[in-house]
Specification:
Layout: H1 3-25, H2 33-39, E1 51-59, H3 65-75, E2 80-83, H4 85-90, H5 92-100, E3 104-107, H6 120-138, E4 144-145, H7 154-162, E5 166-167, E6 172-173, H8 183-192, E7 199-203, H9 214-230, E8 234-236, E9 244-246, E10 250-252
Parallel strand pairs: 1-2, 1-7, 1-8, 2-3, 4-5, 6-7
Antiparallel strand pairs: 9-10
Helix pairs in contact: 3-9, 6-7, 8-9
Length: 259
């Protein structure tokens, strides 16, 4: 091997893994509102102009989720809960109760890990495994996928697409997972980005957040809903937000696909 060709091989050995890693993690830039909102409105969960999709991540949690279900009943609101597969199978009765009360379930992955390295086979299996768990427990096939931490990678996007799920992030959030979150801060954070057709991200569990932070979210929830209603917006789940996917990764208008 010549000196030149040897250098070329060594350079390729360095650059190829870097290129693979960049292709894997590149879509995670959609976590940034400045990228997601103007360039990928579909990922932001953009829907009908007078509707707000209310979503919760990280459950089901037997300590906190029932409190949210009761609060939503009192408010007359239905929402979409993005569940973790490992939690769903541990608390099947709570999963069924969530659906019984009229709420929708989405897929948040099997575990709540950070996807720094490509894992196409693992991501495909874990997303599909969560879809099966939700379907087996409720009789309903989930339609939506939101990756843990909102970190969308190429392998997770492909896993969701292969499972017939549409990936949805958010357009407004309460930053309610932090130790310094308060009811006022959660409300203010949501209000700052509240727009008709948006999707709001909150959490019904502190399992992957600061201990006890869900109390701030629960207390803020009535004021968040009131702010939406005073703005003339209808609050509901993503299934009322449309469009929804059907098996094969196609997207159809809300109300066309079966529930």
């Amino acid at each position: 091997m010549s000196l030149v060709s040897g250098r070329a091989v060594r350079t390729a050995a360095v650059l190829l893994p870097a290129a693979v890693a960049a292709a894997h993690i590149g879509p995670a830039a959609t976590w940034l509102p400045g990228v997601r909102l103007p360039l990928f409105p579909g990922l932001a969960g953009t829907g009908p102009r007078r509707h707000i999709a209310l979503t919760f991540d990280d459950g089901p949690d037997p300590v906190s989720t029932p409190r949210f279900l009761d609060a939503l009943d009192e408010l007359g609101v239905r929402a979409t809960f993005f569940v973790l597969g490992e939690q769903a199978v541990r608390h099947p009765a709570l999963v069924r109760e969530t659906v019984r009360r009229g709420h929708e379930l989405g897929v948040h992955g099997w575990t709540h890990d950070r996807p720094w390295w490509p894992a196409f086979a693992r991501d495909a299996e874990e997303v599909a495994r969560t879809v099966r768990a939700v379907h087996d427990l409720t009789g309903h096939r989930p339609r939506w996928y939101r990756p843990p931490y909102g970190i969308l990678t190429t392998s997770r996007w492909l896993a969701a697409r292969r499972a017939g799920l549409r990936t949805v992030l958010w357009s407004a959030w309460g930053r309610d997972w932090t130790a310094d979150a308060t009811p006022a801060s959660v409300r203010a954070r949501v209000a700052a980005d509240l727009r008709g057709g948006g999707t709001v991200l909150l959490h019904d569990s502190d399992r992957h957040s600061a201990p006890g932070c869900w109390h701030a979210t629960l207390t803020a929830l009535p004021t968040v809903v009131r702010d939406c209603r005073e703005a003339g917006l209808v609050v509901g789940p993503l299934r009322d937000h449309g469009p929804v996917p059907v098996p094969g990764g196609m997207v159809v208008p809300a109300g066309v696909a079966g529930g």
